[in-house]
Design goal:
Helix 3 packs parallel to helix 5. It is globular and about 45 Å long. It is built from 10 helices and 7 strands. The protein is of the alpha/beta class. The chain binds nicotinamide-adenine-dinucleotide (NAD).
Length: 256
């Protein structure tokens, strides 16, 4: 489904780098930025889905997004991917720290190794990707970094302690980076989705009974789609939000 959206002239030809851009909300962002004629690059571990998306976007926009297979838990590989994008497309002006996993765990069973792994996926790459693109954005005279948060820690979701901790920390990261990078015209914001009906969510977690609860809780009724989140990312990335930084934009239909 494609919702109609605004066109942001400032996004045309801007280089955007999306982590986890191959499926779910990240894929909607890859598509949405491509429709704005931005130069889109994304990393993902899901190679098959990512290659399918490249073909789809190529067919729709005439320009294939640049896909680089990369596990964001590997900081050196992430930095190398960012360097490769710079070489092939130019300096990155928009960074979207989106890759994450909300796999559930029982409180009693989480091991220190699993805790570290959750942070290595859900928090650490956002810092190191930001560190790697700082020089690009300074060179461009500014940029926009968007960190994906979540309402899960605000609403007290269960069986997600490590993920929720990482997601709460994403907003701390946003505010710290925004303070330090603001002087270079680099804006940093958190984009926090509510219950977004991605394929994965529907397959793994959202039963018809749970969807009823979600609908009863949201102020605005109806499914939140990946496109709803992607369209807010366009605004946060574009010059239209030029003085908006260090904020959290919550897109949950009214809940948190
Ligand atoms: N879907 C929701 O309801 C929801 C709610 C709150 C927050 N969020 C946040 O939105 C963002 C996107 O979520 P989503 O629902 O689209 O998730 P998703 O699992 O559908 O997609 C995540 C993408 O990241 C990729 N990925 C996972 N591990 C990776 C790794 N190690 N290296 C590289 N890529 C990796 C996956 O292959 C996938 O393409 C996440 O930050 C998530 O925490 C989602």
């Amino acid at each position: 489904m494609h919702l109609s959206s605004a066109v942001y002239p400032s996004l045309a030809n801007r280089v955007v780098f999306i982590t986890g851009g191959g499926s779910g909300i990240g894929a909607a962002m890859t598509q949405a930025f491509a429709r704005q004629r931005a130069k889109v690059a994304f990393v993902d571990i899901a190679e098959e889905a990512s290659r399918r998306l490249v073909d789809e976007v190529h067919g729709a926009s005439g320009v294939p997004p640049l896909f680089l297979p990369c596990d964001v838990r590997d900081v050196a590989m992430l930095a190398a991917s960012i360097a490769s994008v710079r070489e092939r497309l130019g300096p990155i002006g928009i960074l979207i720290n989106n890759a994450a996993s909300d796999d559930r765990h029982r409180l009693e069973e989480l091991t220190p190794q699993q805790w570290d792994e959750r942070m290595a996926l859900n928090l650490r790459p956002a810092f190191f990707a930001s560190q790697a693109v700082m020089a690009h954005m300074r060179e461009l005279g500014g940029g926009s970094i968007i960190n994906l948060g979540s309402i899960c820690w605000r609403i007290g979701a269960a069986n997600l302690t490590a993920y929720a901790t990482a997601k709460a920390a994403m907003h701390g990261l946003t505010r710290s980076l925004a303070r330090e990078l603001g002087a270079h015209g680099i804006r940093v914001n958190t984009l926090s989705p509510g219950c977004v009906m991605t394929e994965r969510q529907l397959q793994l977690w959202v039963s018809p009974a749970q969807e009823k609860i979600i609908q009863a809780t949201q102020y605005v009724k109806g499914r939140i789609l990946p496109e709803h989140i992607a369209h807010c990312a366009l605004f946060l990335a574009a010059d239209d939000s030029a003085m908006l930084t260090a904020q959290e934009m919550i897109v949950d239909g009214g809940w948190a």
